[in-house]
Amino acid sequence: VYNFNAGPAMFPLEVLQQVQAELRDLQGTGLSVLEISHRSKEYEQINEETQQLLKELLGISSEYDVLFMQGGASTQFAMVPMNFLTEGRVANYIESGTWSHKAVEEAKKIGRTEILASSEADQFRKVPDLQGLKIHPEAAYVHLTSNETIAGTQYRDFISTGEIPLIVDMSSDILSREINVSNFSLIYAGAQKNLGPSGVTVVIVKRELLHRIPNSIPNMMNYQVHAQKNSLYNTPPVFAVYMVNLMLKWIQKNGGVKGMEQRNQLKANLIYRTIDNSEGFYNGLAHVESRSMMNVTFSVVNDELEKEFLRQAEENGFVGLKGHRDAGHLRVSMYNAVPYEQCKALTDFMDDFQKRFG
Ligand code: PLP
């Protein structure tokens, strides 16, 4: 099966095999990782090592804390304004797609929220330009989504927001390319695309931001509490963190983030080239300058052939190509674990389908 699911997404086979091998006996403890206490030294080591691996892979400085939280990225949509949108401040958002729209809607429930730029009028098929943004002088933070999973758009470059914290949802492209973490005050990402299974959300937060959080925020929703307790305030998602640990080691073994970026670029180039060389038989949905390396969205020349494409693709073992209901059409999600060969198999199928029906 060629898995192109948008998330939860594919794992490397060797990672799944390691989980299988260790499931009944974690490192000679005689216990499964599902059965160990989160207060045990085994989990303490997993917790510490996973934070360390992430710090090394992304070059995160000692000014930041790495947290493992629950509730998915959707909980972060609410937590960010709950913690930082304090009295008299304004939350500033860049609305580049369905996910950033949802983040805006949550912030509105908490306090004053302004959209600085939106591409809704373009059906979110491009990312709004970040140059010349009028950031509110009383902005609590600026929030944006680096990769919009549904529309298949991605920011290549970011802006500096100076003293105003820049907060980014990197759920669908964290660890897929090199980034300079010091440009951001807070990064969050649901794990289930590039990092691990659903159930854990990674938060990378600049420590100086934590001191601004009011005491009135309930503990489970309070970044400061999770940071002080080293992500052990309550029972953490032990199995999910363990799997993130294995994924990070796999990334490290496969050239680190730089290696991932090179591979992801090759994969994306291959698919986009096939679309662009098809003379209109396939059409990319995102504007060229906003195209995502992670999620390629496209259509087939007419609805009937698109249905036939999907039917035959499924018959040939290609899974997860149906576009999200908000965007329709087709979507190829190719996170870190998706090998180049799998993308090549898909483009061979696309070429062949065009020969037969084009
Ligand atoms: N943000 C982005 C960019 C996403 O792609 C998703 C889910 O696909 C979410 C947020 C929501 O994540 P979760 O389902 O973990 O709440």
UniProtKB/TrEMBL annotation:
<dbReference type="InterPro" id="IPR022278">
    <property type="entry name" value="Pser_aminoTfrase"/>
</dbReference>
<keyword id="KW-0718">Serine biosynthesis</keyword>
<keyword id="KW-0963">Cytoplasm</keyword>
<comment type="function">
    <text>Catalyzes the reversible conversion of 3-phosphohydroxypyruvate to phosphoserine and of 3-hydroxy-2-oxo-4-phosphonooxybutanoate to phosphohydroxythreonine.</text>
</comment>
<feature type="binding site">
    <location>
        <position position="149"/>
    </location>
    <ligand>
        <name>pyridoxal 5'-phosphate</name>
    </ligand>
</feature>
<dbReference type="GO" id="GO:0005737">
    <property type="term" value="C:cytoplasm"/>
</dbReference>
<feature type="binding site">
    <location>
        <position position="192"/>
    </location>
    <ligand>
        <name>pyridoxal 5'-phosphate</name>
    </ligand>
</feature>
<comment type="similarity">
    <text>Belongs to the class-V pyridoxal-phosphate-dependent aminotransferase family. SerC subfamily.</text>
</comment>
<feature type="binding site">
    <location>
        <begin position="73"/>
        <end position="74"/>
    </location>
    <ligand>
        <name>pyridoxal 5'-phosphate</name>
    </ligand>
</feature>
<feature type="binding site">
    <location>
        <position position="99"/>
    </location>
    <ligand>
        <name>pyridoxal 5'-phosphate</name>
    </ligand>
</feature>
<feature type="binding site">
    <location>
        <position position="39"/>
    </location>
    <ligand>
        <name>L-glutamate</name>
    </ligand>
</feature>
<dbReference type="InterPro" id="IPR015424">
    <property type="entry name" value="PyrdxlP-dep_Trfase"/>
</dbReference>
<feature type="modified residue" description="N6-(pyridoxal phosphate)lysine">
    <location>
        <position position="193"/>
    </location>
</feature>
<dbReference type="GO" id="GO:0006564">
    <property type="term" value="P:L-serine biosynthetic process"/>
</dbReference>
<feature type="binding site">
    <location>
        <begin position="234"/>
        <end position="235"/>
    </location>
    <ligand>
        <name>pyridoxal 5'-phosphate</name>
    </ligand>
</feature>
<dbReference type="GO" id="GO:0030170">
    <property type="term" value="F:pyridoxal phosphate binding"/>
</dbReference>
<dbReference type="GO" id="GO:0004648">
    <property type="term" value="F:O-phospho-L-serine:2-oxoglutarate aminotransferase activity"/>
</dbReference>
<feature type="binding site">
    <location>
        <position position="169"/>
    </location>
    <ligand>
        <name>pyridoxal 5'-phosphate</name>
    </ligand>
</feature>
<keyword id="KW-0663">Pyridoxal phosphate</keyword>
<keyword id="KW-0028">Amino-acid biosynthesis</keyword>
<keyword id="KW-0032">Aminotransferase</keyword>
<feature type="domain" description="Aminotransferase class V">
    <location>
        <begin position="1"/>
        <end position="345"/>
    </location>
</feature>
<dbReference type="InterPro" id="IPR000192">
    <property type="entry name" value="Aminotrans_V_dom"/>
</dbReference>
<comment type="pathway">
    <text>Amino-acid biosynthesis; L-serine biosynthesis; L-serine from 3-phospho-D-glycerate: step 2/3.</text>
</comment>
<keyword id="KW-0808">Transferase</keyword>
<comment type="subunit">
    <text>Homodimer.</text>
</comment>
<protein>
    <recommendedName>
        <fullName>Phosphoserine aminotransferase</fullName>
        <ecNumber>2.6.1.52</ecNumber>
    </recommendedName>
</protein>
<dbReference type="Pfam" id="PF00266">
    <property type="entry name" value="Aminotran_5"/>
</dbReference>
<dbReference type="InterPro" id="IPR015421">
    <property type="entry name" value="PyrdxlP-dep_Trfase_major"/>
</dbReference>
<dbReference type="InterPro" id="IPR015422">
    <property type="entry name" value="PyrdxlP-dep_Trfase_small"/>
</dbReference>
